[in-house]
Amino acid sequence: MTTAPAKAGWRFRQPSVIPGFGLTLGFSLAYLTLIILIPLSGLIWRSAALGWADFWAIATDRRTINALEISFGTAFIAAMVNVVFGTIVAWVLVRYSFPGRRIVDAMVDLPFALPTAVAGIALTTLYAPNGWLGSLLAPLGIKVAYTPLGIVIALIFIGLPFVVRTVQPIMEEIDKEVEEVAATLGANRFQTIARVLLPGLAPAIVTGFALAFARGVGEYGSVIFIAGNLPYKSEIAPLLIVIRLEEYNYAAATAIAAIMLALSFVMLLVINLVQTWSRKRYG
């Protein structure tokens, strides 16, 4: 007579042949506490010391709201543009062989290595009214530098590698035979992309969007040169925080930073929920 095996209960950790769980967990928690939790806790504590009335007055100030709208709005637009063109760039680098392919592949990482201030100065030089590209756009009535459009272009520049490098490895794992099978079954090119390729790439695309968006929201160095920094027009929230610090108004600076933190957390939480849903749906 055999007895049924005991039903395994919930465990804090699964058995592993690799030792050192307690040590590595303790180090991870201590590291996250020192680097992330303590600074964020200090920010929240300093903001809470304001009182609800003062905090609400800073949060509802028209200049603060406008700066937050510009920061989050331009970051969202730039991330959406990078999703489209970053996926196309990754597709070209994976699916086609052409002269200079390795050079193009290396150039994708240029925004990672280039100081953000240098990127901002270079973009301003190009898109200023007397710049190479700005002088061509000016007769058409298109002004890029010192406008929110310039901010979007700067954020596209610094966010493109996040999408390309996130999508590219996943795309390399998709065999070309999958596309050929879809074609033999009667699918046209659009159907192959929409029903065969994109479902498998969706989690990576969402991840790339989240990374590009998060980088764009907090970007400072490459934006201040091309934005113009005009209040109510092209002033970003990180710059407004710096202005408040220079005015020794630390309470307003921490309040704006706390608002940015809360909005970023909510938006990234929504993105992660969408990413989890896409993984469950498409695998």
UniProtKB/TrEMBL annotation:
Primary location: membrane
Domain ABC transmembrane type-1 as annotated: residue spans: 68-271
InterPro entries, per database record: CysT_permease (IPR011865), MetI-like (IPR000515), MetI-like_sf (IPR035906), Sulph_transpt2 (IPR005667)
Keyword Transmembrane: yes
Membrane topology annotation: Multi-pass membrane protein
GO MF term list: ABC-type sulfate transporter activity
UniProt GO cellular component terms: plasma membrane
Superkingdom of the source species: Bacteria
Segments forming a coiled coil: none
Compartments it resides in: Cell membrane
Segments traversing the membrane: 21-45, 70-94, 106-128, 140-164, 196-214, 250-274
Family the entry assigns: Belongs to the binding-protein-dependent transport system permease family. CysTW subfamily.
Function according to Swiss-Prot or TrEMBL: Part of the ABC transporter complex (TC 3.A.1.6.1) involved in sulfate/thiosulfate import.
Protein name: Sulfate transport system permease protein CysT
